[in-house]
Each structure stands twice: as structure tokens, then as C-alpha cells.
């Protein structure tokens, strides 16, 4: 009996060693400096070309940051958002939240072209998205952080998932909380990551409902000079009919091209552009979210710290590593 038990324990130990070895080699975690040996200039190539793109078009910083959000919320951070329609697979680019809205694909294409020339089939498209998002934030005055790398690229896209899981600009607070929860993100992450709206622009069609419906505003100061009503009048004049649905307005009216904490002061003044921005304070009946919005509005360093933590957390959603997925040669298509 004792001999059998000894054999059983030995078998379990051997199995444990094999499992650990396999996981370490084929399904390991994301790492800092992942390309230090295999492609030492990878991060520098990404940073330089993001910088060139943002200098040409400052709005590109927000577009590249948004690409990572829309990628990670569908299937995980696997570059599925970059795939074009091919055969029976419909691209996520055609989904309602993305069509005629997502941009920056050409920037990613060019970076991938340069990386393939320097280190063929080494740097994944999903890692390019991660580095480009970090660099975009930093180049607009936001925090810098060391990204975790080692993702691989998906073999499929999810048109249905893009329509289902990407938060809509008119979402209620409950809807936003549930949406983030589905991704393993909590209320703290929702508040911090919403601060990405301190840069970028939105189309009239995305916030038209906010300016045509009465009594949608709530401010937390005495609007003695009627600045809130003036803000609404400006938006209404810009988006007065459907012919202007694609007109753009800054998400942060104060410092639209700088990554700072003014997004949160806008919320306190009732000047968040999207319904999904304003509900953070107007539908927060318990006051938990309002307190954090207030903290970020008065303490930019705190916002930056929490934003980085939430970006690292979001960037780890359902990642493919090891032998999962592939390293695409072209970010728009799976390898042949």
C-alpha cells in the first residue's frame, strides 16, 4: 500500500514539473523588456513613429489610445480589431462603434512594416497597439509607464463582439459598470480609464442625444454666468441637423490636445461631452464615483497613477501568449 502511495506521489511531482515547464515555455505571463534580446529596438521604433504621427496630427494620439480600448474589450488584447474582412470573417472595423470612427490603422501598418524589416515575425500587432497607446499618452503630456509585453495575435475577429461589448456613448452608468465588469474591470478602473477622454474628439452623432434632450445636466457649482447653457448652445449650433453628424467636437473643451485631469473638472461643471461621461456624476446616487471624480479633479498625480494601473490591468485582458495565436506578418490579415 505504501509503495503504491509513493508511486502516486512521484507521478504527481513529475506531472507538476512537466506542467510548470510547459506553462513557463508556452503560456507564460506578460513581461517587461520582452523584446530586449529578440528585437532590442522594438519600443524605440514604435515610439519614434508614434511621435511623427502625432506631430503631424495631434488627434492621432487619442485615436491610437482608443484602438487599444476597442481591441481589448472584444476577445481580449489580441489585435483582432486590426483584421480586415476576409472570406467568411467580418472585420470588427465594420461594427457600429467602429465604422467611420476608428482611425490610426495606417500608423500601425507602417510601424509593423518597419518592425518586420528589423525583426521578422517577432513583434506582435497586439504589442504594437499596447506600446503605441502608452507612447500616445506620454507624448500628449500624460504619464509614462513600462508596458508588459509578450502578447500574440488572434486568428479571428468578432464583429458581433464589437457590437456587444464596446460601451456606447449614450450608455447609462449601470450599463458601463456591467460592461467593465464583463472584462474583469471594476468601478475604479471605469473612473480612471474614462479619463482617456481628456484628449480626442467625438462626432456629433455620438453626443447629439445629450444636447437635444432637456434636463440632462447636473452641475456641482453655482452656474452664475450660465456657462453650462452657453456650452450646450455651442454644441447645438454645431450639430443642428443630421447633415452635420460627422462634425467633430473636443471631448475636453479646456485642453483638448493635452493629457491632463481637466476631463474631471469638466464633469463637475456638467461639461462632459458624451452622455457616458456625464453619467459618472449624474447617476451616481451613492456618491462613491463622485468622490473619486473630485479627487482626480484636484490631484492630477493621483489620476495618472490610477490610470496607469488600470491601463496595465486592461492590457492583460484575455491575452494570448506562448504558442497561442500567432505573430502576424501583416496586422490586417492572419498568416497564410
TrEMBL record:
InterPro entries: Haem_peroxidase (IPR002016), Haem_peroxidase_sf (IPR010255), Peroxidase_pln (IPR000823), Peroxidases_AS (IPR019794), Peroxidases_heam-ligand_BS (IPR019793), Secretory_peroxidase (IPR033905). Removal of H(2)O(2), oxidation of toxic reductants, biosynthesis and degradation of lignin, suberization, auxin catabolism, response to environmental stresses such as wounding, pathogen attack and oxidative stress. These functions might be dependent on each isozyme/isoform in each plant tissue. It comes from Camelina sativa (False flax). Binds 1 heme b (iron(II)-protoporphyrin IX) group per subunit. Binds 2 calcium ions per subunit. It comes from the Eukaryota. Belongs to the peroxidase family. Ascorbate peroxidase subfamily. Belongs to the peroxidase family. Classical plant (class III) peroxidase subfamily. Its EC number is 1.11.1.7. Keywords: Calcium, Disulfide bond, Heme, Hydrogen peroxide, Iron, Metal-binding, Oxidoreductase, Peroxidase, Secreted, Signal. It catalyses: 2 a phenolic donor + H2O2 = 2 a phenolic radical donor + 2 H2O. This is Peroxidase. It is found in: Secreted; Vacuole. Pfam families: peroxidase. Residues 29-335 form the Plant heme peroxidase family profile domain. Its cofactor is heme b; Ca(2+).
